[in-house]
């Protein structure tokens, strides 16, 4: 029996731009089927990695294969098997949605009748039938992104690279794109998704590689990544912002526990051993006269995982 090749395999792949190590020794083995997430802040190396895997950029060193083919010596074969949707829509804004898909279908070998059939099928599937004859320049950001993904699967690819497909979209449009990604997987396409949104990776990806400064710093399922930093995370919302620093001091110095601050100035996150330890901590805080507006104990979020791994939240990394 022939062994099914991995969707993606890289070994110590690097890409340097002068003195900048955009990708710095990444090794991955990604199986076919499902969504594999590449999670990291802006500048982490996600897009550079995607461009190498899509054969748009040669690696400085190391090696990579896509669907069993070498990304340097077998580029044309790979390009027949994959599609890429970048962070910004690449369709022609002066054409209508229908015209864009018709043009692509004909360029990709569909006959006139079949080209129109495929274009209409995609417009319907992506919720764009009513806008089919409107110029793309009149579309919302979410509509453009859906059209862009539709354009990338005129010929259904074995593997699709989605590079931050929901960047800049409102929550409703993001959910629509998520549904599209799920339908691609249901139809048998493997998806490599890069994102800086932790909830997106959590919702869609069966497995995630966390990348920071060009390196993979963690890899696993969402549950595995959360378990790697502990299973009991206590989240305290302090009622008065002026008391947050006092609470932080009590937890860090009196109780000798690590405390993580967040983008929410009222929230403190603490890793605890068990329910009993969490109860003792809450008692200690309230005994000091600090009012807690609410608290919760549970698994860490992916945001808290990233914070534990790097010492910074994704938002802080993006600002930097």
UniProtKB/TrEMBL annotation:
Its main location: membrane. It is a peripheral membrane protein. One of its GO terms (biological process) is doxorubicin transport. SUPFAM superfamilies: P-loop containing nucleoside triphosphate hydrolases (SSF52540). The keyword Magnesium does not apply. PROSITE patterns: ABC_TRANSPORTER_1, ABC_TRANSPORTER_2. The lineage of its organism: Bacteria, Pseudomonadati, Bacteroidota, Bacteroidia, Marinilabiliales. GO terms for cellular component: plasma membrane. This is ABC-2 type transport system ATP-binding protein. Residues 8-238 form the ABC transporter domain. It is found in: Cell membrane. Keywords: ATP-binding, Cell membrane, Membrane, Nodulation, Nucleotide-binding, Translocase, Transport. GO terms for molecular function: ATP binding; ATP hydrolysis activity. Belongs to the ABC transporter superfamily. Drug exporter-1 (DrugE1) (TC 3.A.1.105) family. It holds the Pfam family ABC_tran.
């Amino acid at each position: 029996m022939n062994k099914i090749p991995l969707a993606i395999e890289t070994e110590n792949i690097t890409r340097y731009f002068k003195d900048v190590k955009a990708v710095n020794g990444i090794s991955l083995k990604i199986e076919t089927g499902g969504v594999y997430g590449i999670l990291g802040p802006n500048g982490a190396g996600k897009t550079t990695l995607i461009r190498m895997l899509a054969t748009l950029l040669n690696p400085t060193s190391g090696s990579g294969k896509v669907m069993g083919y070498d990304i340097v010596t077998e580029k044309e074969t790979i390009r027949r098997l994959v599609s890429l949707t970048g962070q910004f829509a690449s369709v022609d804004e002066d054409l209508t949605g229908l015209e864009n898909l018709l043009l692509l279908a004909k360029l990709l070998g569909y006959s006139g009748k079949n080209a129109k059939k495929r274009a209409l099928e995609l417009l319907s599937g992506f919720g764009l039938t009513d806008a089919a004859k409107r110029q793309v320049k009149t579309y919302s950001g979410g509509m453009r992104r859906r059209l862009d993904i539709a354009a990338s699967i005129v010929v259904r690819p074995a593997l699709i690279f989605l590079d931050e497909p929901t960047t800049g979209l409102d929550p409703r449009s993001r959910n629509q794109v998520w549904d599209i990604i799920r339908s691609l997987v249901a139809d048998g396409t493997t998806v490599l998704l890069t994102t800086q949104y932790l909830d997106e990776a959590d919702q869609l990806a069966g497995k995630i590689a966390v990348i920071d400064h060009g390196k993979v710093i963690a890899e696993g399922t969402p549950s595995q990544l959360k378990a790697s930093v502990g299973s009991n995370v206590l989240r305290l919302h302090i009622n008065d912002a002026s008391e947050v620093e006092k609470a932080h001091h009590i937890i860090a110095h009196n109780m000798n526990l690590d405390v993580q601050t967040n983008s929410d100035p009222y929230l403190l996150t603490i890793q605890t051993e068990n329910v009993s330890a969490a109860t003792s901590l809450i008692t200690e805080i309230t005994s000091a006269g600090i009012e807690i507006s609410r608290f919760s104990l549970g698994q860490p979020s992916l945001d808290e995982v990233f914070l534990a791994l790097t010492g910074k939240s994704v938002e802080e990394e993006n600002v930097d």
